[in-house]
Amino acid sequence: MAVCAHCGAEVGVASTGGAEFCCRGCRAAYSLVRGMGLDQYYRRRSIDPTQRPLRPDDEAGPVDYSAQVHPSDDGIVGLHLMVEGMHCAACVWLIESILARQPGVIEARLNMTTRRLVVRWRDGETNANAVLAPVIAIGYRLQPYDPARLGRESERVEKELLRAMAVAGFAAGNVMLFSVSIWAGQSGSMDWVTRSLFHWISALIALPAVVYCIRPFARSAFSALRAGRSNMDVPITIGVTLASAMSLWETMRGGPHAYFDAAISLLFFLLIGRYLDSRARGRARSSAEHLLALGAVTVTVLDGDGTRRLLPPEQVQLGMTVLVATGERIGADGTVTDGQSEIDTSLITGETVPAPVEPGATVFAGTLNLSGPLKLEVTAVGESTLLAEIVRMMEVAEQGRARYVAIADRVARYYAPVVHLMGLVTFLGWEIFTDTPWQVALLYAVSVLIITCPCALALAVPVVQVVASGRWLRRGILAKSATAQERLASVDWVVFDKTGTLTEGRPELQAGHWTQEDLRQAASIAAASKHPVARAVARAMPDVPVADDVREVAGCGLAYGDIRLGSRQWLGLPDDPAEASGPELFLARPGHPAVRFGFRDPLRADAKDVVALLKHKGYRLTLLSGDRRSVVETIAGDLGIDDWQAGCKPADKCARLAALAGAGHKVLMIGDGLNDAPALASAHVSMSPSSAVDISQTVADVVFQGHLLSPVIEALAVARKAGALVRQNFALALGYNLLTIPLAIAGQVTPLIAAISMSTSSVIVISNALRLSRGRLW
Amino acid sequence: MTNLLMLIPVALVLGALGLVGFLWALRSGQFEDLDGAANRILFDYDELEQKTDDNEKQHP
After folding, report:
1. A75, A133, A251, A318 - which has most CB atoms within 10 Å?
2. What is the ipTM of this complex?
């Protein structure tokens, strides 16, 4: 089969773009690229099947970018955009080249990692829409964003960590040079003058570096202490500070106990852990933000004088007239004033059968307009919309969710007081029971604190999390919350939503009493429509030529000459309750009896296996759906889920989750719709497919991509394994301390022992965590 | 001993140079797009530079 020269999709027999292209848009895009002399793009690129194909979007309509332009002095203005549809580095090249060729453009830089594009041009010479038009015409989707709001904070923190890490690395390396010399000279070949010189140089390098690098830890420790809590950063800060101060004091009096190398290399290790942790989380978060920003809609407002404007939903006012094109998502709650159509409400209610609407009907933001253009009068904005109400419920649910304390902080809560007490006991013990001078007793006490400084303990969790989220990322699972992994590990009950979660969320043709000839005819008519049910017919037989002159009767069906393809009511057929489950279409031809095509929302391909495996692993399963009883019952039966509930409103789902939580269960909620958002927020931990509405993705702790449900298994398996590894790491780190603390209390710890024990324990913890990176888990 | 007096400063200065270089690279944004940087070396920007030069000439 031929492949489209532009987007790489298969070319249908009856393609509107000729033999080489799948559609007219691709043909135009190809000649645009060629015309600019950039056609080497097609030889260089490699298509990424997980990305949106590079196909111009006829439906989307023009978007006005001029409102998002950032003005600046000297007449140069810029725009920050996110790019969807980027497949490989050749796309970066293509986009930058096209933009650089626009007159007036000064700079176009596309960041391949974050998929963010910055364009700057001279104001007055050109405008935003003209600059971006060719890029959009080629098939990329551009979404403006506000750089001040998006990830600025985490970027700043990450940079600070990286800088601190570089300084610590430099200092640790150089101090270690001197320390190794000192250790080597301990047998007597080094006189105390040289040793003292080396200590002073070490101090000169290490002290400024410690002051600089300890800030991230000290800040966190102070804020924890001020709030009356303790975390891992408290013993770290105290340990490092004391070690540095004592080493300085030893250096001044020419003693042997200088721990500069231990203090600074400890910081270096910890900063590596911190940095990797923040980067892994930042990556997952920026991917999630990316998905969200692309989902944002604009609303087409019709002014009194007939002009159309595009507005973001929050700027729409009461009483405005809003146009909704066929196939578009409705952006505001309102009453239909003109037009007839069908509305897909599945994201709000979970109902899979589209509801017909006509003038006077009420429609809600977030639903999808299927078959005809509509004019709406806006009846609710802002706080009074259905959407806002769901958001309110969600906020209440989130407040109810107990503040989860990460395992590291729970350990630190006990760890910090114990080690500090131990230091005190050591000091008092040496003071009271022996006649050592207080300086020496203090030295021993401080060495206890240094040796217990929780380097391995502080690495135990972040290293495992970094490895685990790397593994998740490879499978398209994005963890948005820091504690999601820990919470997932403790789950014992999984609650599913139906539409769009267990099922694909789009109708598929079912077998029925129709012949191939019937289907061929229906498909050739249906190919002319964007209605999801019609698309399902067309998908069932993709190679038929598209019939010309098909008339679409909004809310009813399609007409092609005498042949009609449409709803039961339109064709005047009697109701038949036995057949009425799920959407249906009828093909009526003169002289033939009407043929019925039944549809249903198919299960995700691996839903059955996933459910079976979850049951096998001992999870309790529940299906909560807003859809009708008969549909839910069938699906629950197919999958073998005994516990199901149909017709759930958002509040019902929340109530059920609250009941489960009250019984002591840890519930994982998986859902995609607006109606699931409150339930997602109130569950112990929640997941959402990336096809979900943006609000659900915002609430969910974990977002997974792709058409399969198996990421749920992977997420749970990795989380459980990660939980086990974290506990092992804690055991290892604490065991190490148990071995070395007696030495420290006895005053036998030399700087060499401290350095060895600290780095080996860190290395052991890190290698243990790396075991998670490959291999089958379940 | 005199060797040390020379070698220690040399080692420190070399190390510090590396550190300064890294901090400079970080500040000038070279760590912001590692994937892109790895690929950019393969891009062919010759024509584009010409074009940018033209722009500059029009607007000195």
Report:
1. A251
2. 0.74
